[in-house]
């Protein structure tokens, strides 16, 4: 396909977006129908905060825009019909009032008049229109309704059944206003009959289910504390996105702890909030750090081949969120000595790291360290070194383990917590919901950073977990650098938890996007210069 063919195909697929009413109209339509944001959100398959964003100035796109436009148009039509019924129903209800018991017959409204004694408005129609009672052609309208003035002309005039135990009486000729009231009374029943197919459609709609332990359950049975918190914040701040976001970020730590408790219900292990901690995990001074080395990478390549090179700085999405899936010690750490490593346990280890001979192409797995000799590392760092020293890679010698503080471990301790945050983040990205996105990011990043000695999170004191999760994020970045190198990319730089600079066609190696398994472009720049042909000729 040529470039022009691709452009033609793109233009053929392009279509004009469905217009939407102004934001103030969107909100008023919903509120006049007494519908909450949560109800609208559930029908459209989005979050309540997304609906709040649409009512505050953001516009949806794609298929969800068409659904939202359909809802707004339907709301407008329903409100217009309700207004018309109210306007028509007021005089009809007055016309249908029965005389009071014992009242003089002369006090009752006369046929063809209202209860005020004024004659109903009867007009001749220029062309016949269907009668509201029988559907046949009528030449007059009464109170705006086409109908026959003579009952004999109306094909569907039904006799009124006699009252029980009442003497037979001659059928009274119903006046035009009374016939109009009868039509109004039948309208709601007709409306219910018209809605029956929609009910059948709902009955055949697939049921959305989600996993709940070993069983499955319908999605509406699953608690959504994140969505509920966002909806409440938007409601409290009148749809102000910035104010709602600031309030949610401020309470991210207690909300994260509440979510952790919710996701730990039915778990096999109790989360020990304040176990005994060895001295290596305690701060050496009031403002200092403990003795654990997290292996944070801060590496840059020193030389590149001659010429100009296009470098792409890739941003690794949700680094700390992905790192929640790591081997965490369940209970109190226990001391041990010796070289052996038990993969069923996790903790911190005093090791002598191996020599690293690949600094010109790949960062050192233990990060930039100036001091030689033994150091305390975390479980992810030790496992990374053991993996790289194994037969698959053979990049270094095994580390020497001197002593350890470990406990029985599991990789799934925070898995439900991680999945809940990931699913909320994924939905927020699809729905362009920046409020939820910032809230979720604050929840997992602050959860990790305040697990140590912090005045902001007093419910959980696990500095070992904090170090392990951070180190897992660094190990994940290192493995991405190794993958890039093995796939033929030139690794230029690796920094922190989420930044990798490469030269080459990186899209053949990493999927692009905003998901936690994807990467996005943070920056692009050029390094080096193209050789000058004239200068090369002079050298010859």
What's the story with the biggest beta sheet? 6 strands, mixed
**Which structural class do the helices and strands define?**
alpha+beta
* Continuous helix count: 16
Helix content: 25-40%
Radius of gyration computed on alpha carbons: 37 Å
- Percentage of β-strand residues: 15-25%
Distance between the termini: 44 Å
Shape, per Cα inertia axes:
elongated
- What are the segments in which pLDDT stays under 50 over at least 5 consecutive residues? 91-120, 156-173, 175-202
Overview of the structural elements:
The chain is an alpha+beta fold. It is built from 16 helices and 16 strands. It has helices spanning about 5-15, 25-30, 35-45, 50-55, 60-95, 175-195, 195-205, 225-235, 240-250, 250-265, 320-325, 380-390, 415-430, 435-450, 465-485, 535-540; strands at about 120-130, 135-140, 145, 210, 215-220, 290-295, 300, 310-315, 330, 335, 345-350, 375-380, 400-410, 490-495, 500-505, 520-525. The strands form four sheets. Strands 6, 9, 10, 11, 12 and 13 form a six-stranded mixed β-sheet that branches. It has a five-stranded antiparallel β-sheet with strand order 7-14-15-8-16, with helices on one face. Helix 3 packs across helix 4 (about 50-55), helix 5 runs antiparallel to helix 6 (about 175-195) and helix 13 (about 415-430) packs antiparallel against helix 14 (about 435-450). The protein is elongated. It starts with a helix and ends with a helix. Mean pLDDT is about 80; it is low at about 90-120, about 155-175 and about 175-200.
């Amino acid at each position: 396909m040529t470039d022009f063919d691709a452009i033609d195909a793109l233009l053929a697929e392009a279509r004009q977006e469905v217009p939407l009413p102004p934001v103030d109209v969107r909100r008023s339509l919903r509120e006049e129908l007494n519908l909450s944001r949560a109800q609208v959100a559930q029908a459209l398959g989005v979050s309540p905060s997304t609906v709040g964003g649409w009512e505050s100035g953001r516009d949806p796109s794609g298929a969800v825009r068409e659904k939202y436009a359909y809802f707004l148009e339907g709301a407008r039509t329903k409100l217009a019909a309700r207004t018309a019924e109210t306007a028509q129903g007021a005089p009809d209800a007055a016309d249908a009032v029965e005389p009071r018991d014992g009242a003089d017959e002369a006090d009752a409204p006369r046929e063809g008049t209202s209860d005020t004694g004024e004659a109903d408005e009867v007009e001749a129609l220029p062309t016949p229109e269907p009668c509201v009672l029988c559907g046949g052609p009528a030449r007059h309208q009464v109170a705006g309704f086409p109908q026959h003035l003579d009952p004999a002309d109306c094909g569907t005039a039904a006799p009124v059944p006699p009252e029980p135990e009442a003497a037979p009486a001659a059928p009274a000729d119903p006046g035009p206003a009374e016939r109009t009231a009868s039509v109004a009374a039948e309208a709601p029943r007709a409306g219910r009959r018209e809605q029956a197919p929609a009910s059948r459609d709902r009955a055949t709609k697939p049921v959305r289910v989600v996993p709940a332990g070993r069983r499955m359950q319908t999605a509406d049975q699953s608690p959504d504390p994140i969505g509920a918190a966002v909806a409440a914040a938007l409601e409290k701040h009148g749809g102000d996105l910035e104010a709602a976001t600031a309030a949610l970020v401020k309470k991210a730590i207690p909300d994260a702890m509440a979510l952790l408790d919710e996701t730990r219900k039915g778990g096999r292990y109790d989360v020990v909030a304040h176990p005994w901690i060895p001295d290596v995990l305690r701060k050496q001074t009031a403002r200092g750090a403990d003795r654990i080395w997290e292996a944070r990478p801060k590496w840059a390549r020193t030389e590149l081949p001659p010429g100009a090179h296009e470098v792409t700085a890739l941003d690794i999405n949700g680094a700390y969120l992905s790192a929640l899936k790591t081997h965490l010690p369940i209970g109190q750490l226990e001391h041990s000595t010796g070289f052996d490593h038990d993969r069923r346990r996790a903790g911190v280890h005093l090791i002598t790291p191996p020599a690293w001979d690949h600094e010109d192409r790949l960062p050192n797995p233990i990060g930039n360290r100036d001091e030689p000799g033994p150091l305390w590392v975390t479980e992810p760092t030790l496992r990374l070194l053991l993996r790289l020293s194994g037969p698959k890679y053979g990049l270094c010698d095994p580390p020497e383990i001197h002593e350890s503080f470990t406990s029985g471990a599991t990789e799934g301790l925070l898995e439900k917590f991680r999945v809940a945050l990931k699913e909320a983040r994924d939905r927020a990205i699809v729905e362009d919901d920046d409020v939820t996105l910032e809230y979720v990011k604050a929840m997992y990043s602050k959860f990790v950073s305040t697990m140590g000695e912090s005045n902001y999170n007093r419910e959980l004191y696990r500095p070992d977990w904090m170090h392990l999760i951070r180190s897992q994020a660094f190990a994940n970045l290192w493995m991405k650098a190794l993958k890039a190198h093995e796939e033929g990319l030139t690794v230029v730089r690796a920094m922190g938890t989420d930044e990798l600079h490469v030269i080459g066609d990186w899209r053949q190696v990493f999927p692009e996007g905003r998901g936690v398994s994807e990467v996005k472009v943070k920056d692009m720049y050029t390094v080096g210069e193209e050789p000058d042909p004239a200068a090369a000729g002079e050298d010859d």
